[in-house]
Amino acid sequence: MAIRRATWLALAFPVAATVALAACSSSSSSSPSNAATGSSSSAAASGGLKTGLKVYVIPKQNGQAYFTTADSADSGGAIAALNALGETGTETSGNAATPAAQIPAIQAAISKGANALIVSATDPTALCPTLKSAMSRGITVVTYDSDAPTCRSLFINQAESDKIGTSEVDILAKELNGTGQIAIVSAAASATNQNAWIVGMKQELKKYPKMSLASVVYGNDDATVSTQVTQGLLQQYPNLKGIISPTTVGIAAAAAVLDTPKYRGKVLLTGLGTPNSMKKFVSDGTVKEFELWNPADLGYLAGYAAVELASGKINGSQGQTFTAGKLGSFTVGADNTVVLGPPFVFNASNISKFDF
Predict the structure, then answer these.
(1) HSE-up of 4 (CA within 13 Å, CB side)?
(2) DSSP 192
(3) Is 226 exposed, middle or buried (0-12, 13-18, 19+ CB in 10 A)?
(4) Which run of H or of E encompasses 338?
(5) Contact 150, 183 (CB under 8 A)
(6) Which residues of 326-342 are buried (b: 16+ CB within 10 A; e: fewer)?
(7) In this structure, are residues 97 and 105 in contact, taking their beta carbons and an 8 Å threshold?
(8) 295 phi and psi angles, rounded to 5 deg
(9) Which end of the chain has a smaller Cβ tally under 10 Å, C or N?
């Protein structure tokens, strides 16, 4: 993990836009590069990549801090990569993390002449008629963060799914000394990435016979709903000892619920979170450790991959390699998937080094 970790340690970036992540909730934001934006036929001098491509970055939902970091030019995300390559990048999505909100944004991008779509799928199948329609028109489709396996050319995975699930169980097991009843506060029940991680968690729990999974609940990547389902768990399972929330919205909501004398240090919490949203809870002992990758790197990698595909330099076949700027070289793995790298563990010893 030397390359990825070095990138993390360099990324205590002072990003004003990242501080105001939740404010970026408009339906779209465009960041044209210095290159001409009308034609995608010209090739970049380096690597023969096309320039002037219209690339739409479509996260699950507008305004989420995680996706603002993953997508924006200021944070070094997807649009930063597209700018560097001479493309025109536009971030757009709906205001809820649902297929009903996301599909119109995809359809609008297609109608505006998109050459490539970079999509974090709110559902593995519901988006497919729209995405397949795009592909039939020659539009490159790349998924990132959350996959739609049957209707894209390439998936940019933040980390190997089994490693995310197993590592979070291992963190909680270490803190609980391998004993106790736990629960999971997930995002949406249809989220491909969440479900894959939960499968890994259930498998890893078999290593800890004195730990048991009481329930999996869904906060739908909504802070209010995540708060309510966490409160429900505590009421329903008074002997609960730990919670895993593999969602940046869910873990912050759960931490706020547990941040009281009644629960702090008694019901332990881990999962996937952003440093800025979790610093308070790590500082006061509500959370000891949690994980994430650099979302800006995830978006940056997706940007490069989309341009490589749209330029015909790769087609997503296993074994193909490409270079993603500052991140270095990547190889396409099984199921047309590229993995960013292993997750990074945040705790009191390192969290102050990061600002996003």
Answers:
(1) 20
(2) H
(3) buried
(4) strand 337-339
(5) no
(6) ebeebebeeebbbbbbb
(7) no
(8) -60, -30
(9) N
DSSP state of 123: S
Q: Is 61 exposed, middle or buried (0-12, 13-18, 19+ CB in 10 A)?
A: buried
2-159+294-341: CATH architecture: 3-Layer(aba) Sandwich (3.40)
Q: Are strands 329-331 and 321-323 parallel, antiparallel or unpaired?
A: antiparallel
| 8-state DSSP, 333 | B
Per-residue pLDDT of the chain (356 residues; tens, 9 = 90+): 333 433 443 343 333 333 233 323 334 555 544 333 333 434 444 469 999 999 999 999 999 888 999 999 999 999 999 999 999 999 999 999 999 999 999 999 999 999 999 999 999 999 999 999 999 999 999 999 999 999 999 999 999 888 899 999 999 999 999 999 999 999 999 998 899 999 999 999 999 999 999 999 999 999 999 999 999 999 999 999 999 999 999 999 999 999 999 999 999 999 999 999 999 999 999 999 999 998 999 999 999 999 999 999 999 999 999 999 999 999 999 999 999 998 899 999 999 988 88
Sign (positive/negative) of CA torsion 37, 40, 42, 44? positive
Regarding beta strands 88-92 and 344-346, do their DSSP bridges make them parallel or antiparallel, or are they unpaired? Answer: unpaired
**Alpha-carbon torsion angle 75, 78, 80, 84, nearest 10:** 160
Instruction: Provide CB contacts within 8 A for 108, sequence distance 6+.
Output: 92
C-alpha to C-alpha distance for 93 and 102, rounded to whole angstroms: 6
Query: Residue 302's Cα: distance from chain center in Å?
Result: 11
C-alpha 333/C-alpha 295 separation (Å) is 20
Cα 119 vs. chain centroid, distance in angstroms? 11
In the chain, residues under CATH classification 3.40.50.2300 are 2-159+294-341, 161-292
pLDDT one-digit tens code per residue, 313-342: 999 999 999 999 999 999 999 999 999 998
The CATH fold assigned to 161-292 is Rossmann fold (3.40.50)
Task: Give the whole-angstrom CA distance, residue 106 versus residue 321.
Answer: 28
Number of CB atoms found within 10 A of residue 206's CB: 9
Residue of 229, 212, 232, 213 lying closest to 221 (CA atoms): 229
